[in-house]
Specification:
Length: 92
Amino acid sequence: MKVARAFYVACRCAGPTLRDHDQVLAVLKRHEDVQWVVVRPGRLVEGEAKGLLKESDSPGATLTYEDMAKYNVDLITSDQNNHKFIYPAYAS
């Protein structure tokens, strides 16, 4: 029962945060003159880098902080990712 309760609390608390993120994304989409990229990683964990990240079709991948940091730097230094919404995952 404790697991179910913890899951319910986590989902209930995440709802307002996700709605806030969706509202920010809606504002960004209305401003074509602003360069932006939204990255929604899954779970971030400590540990050594595991490799190259790529754009994924679905959320939820567990990534290391080190890999996510490198991926973010690569994203913001490339014009190819402007106005994109990205779920990162490890390349196969």
